[in-house]
Amino acid sequence: MSKSIKDVAKVAGVSVTTVSRVLNNRGPISEKTREKVFKAMESINYTPNEFARALKLNKTHFIGVSVPSIWHPFFSEFVFHIENRLSRLKYNVLICSNNNDKTREIEFLNMVKQNKVDGIIAITYSDIDRYVSARLPFVSVDRFFTEQVAYVTSDNYWGGKIAASELIKRGCKKIAYIASVARQPNDTLKRKDGFVDGAKEKNCEFVVYEKKEPINDYAMFFSEFFSKYHHIDGIFVVNDQTTLLLLRELNKMGIRVPEDVQIIGYDAFQYFENFDTTLSSIKQPIKEMAESSVDMLLKIIDKEQIPNPVVLPVAFKEGRTTKSLPIYQY
């Protein structure tokens, strides 16, 4: 005979209402009570009927997460923290590695309308503006749309400003910003603005070298840059992945890092923590970005007002691609 929540309540010594609150993650429930309920469920082999519960609550307890590529260290770390957060809240995750494919992203958005997921968290650089609505339970990361949607980002402008300041403090006289630029407007574009303002404030000579995505030949991209700007001694790169490609080409050119040119990236992946080739980088609070995205989405799912954009602080993380500060500056 199948067990019910009445049986769970009896074994746990709590009310049926309390068991229901634990199962649906609603209401103020202490950790001690929550643990008693789960132990009771385990002792009588009770498994909630997720389908019936979804119909009753009009919730699937599935959240969709769409990122350009799960292979990218930033995106994979971001998804890792989202999954951890949602798991603690008894939600499941569906992941779409969209490869910047507009069609796949639109299909994923339609899953909300079809009640296959309760909401979506997305990092997208595709032209999907007209498919994104303020009426959808949707949280965007690093990207704003025509309609007001919830979004989370790091302080990209301040990150660019920090990068310029750190290069100049370390003796750089001629600095550059290098970037591949997404075709859709997004918050990461502010990295350049902060860098430019930071260089101007210090009266430091600078150049900006950008190219629209996709860049199919990074070797040529970097070669053209150095043939035109061979005097540069400090570079801020739009992200760490591009920084790694740059380091590979510099090695081929015989240009030493940081002796000949100092480099700062942006992201500071956890992946690099255990490697000697640690990059100097502007560290994004990836865990906090992921958890803020989850918290915002759940508020929207519960019909609360769309929260204001969340802009999280960044910081410089010193690695091996910049020189140490002169002793007198410590």
UniProtKB/TrEMBL annotation:
<dbReference type="Pfam" id="PF13377">
    <property type="entry name" value="Peripla_BP_3"/>
</dbReference>
<dbReference type="GO" id="GO:0003700">
    <property type="term" value="F:DNA-binding transcription factor activity"/>
</dbReference>
<dbReference type="InterPro" id="IPR010982">
    <property type="entry name" value="Lambda_DNA-bd_dom_sf"/>
</dbReference>
<keyword id="KW-0238">DNA-binding</keyword>
<dbReference type="Pfam" id="PF00356">
    <property type="entry name" value="LacI"/>
</dbReference>
<protein>
    <submittedName>
        <fullName>Transcriptional regulator, LacI family</fullName>
    </submittedName>
</protein>
<keyword id="KW-0678">Repressor</keyword>
<dbReference type="InterPro" id="IPR028082">
    <property type="entry name" value="Peripla_BP_I"/>
</dbReference>
<dbReference type="InterPro" id="IPR046335">
    <property type="entry name" value="LacI/GalR-like_sensor"/>
</dbReference>
<feature type="domain" description="HTH lacI-type">
    <location>
        <begin position="3"/>
        <end position="57"/>
    </location>
</feature>
<keyword id="KW-0804">Transcription</keyword>
<dbReference type="InterPro" id="IPR000843">
    <property type="entry name" value="HTH_LacI"/>
</dbReference>
<dbReference type="InterPro" id="IPR001387">
    <property type="entry name" value="Cro/C1-type_HTH"/>
</dbReference>
<feature type="domain" description="HTH cro/C1-type">
    <location>
        <begin position="4"/>
        <end position="51"/>
    </location>
</feature>
<dbReference type="GO" id="GO:0000976">
    <property type="term" value="F:transcription cis-regulatory region binding"/>
</dbReference>
<keyword id="KW-0805">Transcription regulation</keyword>
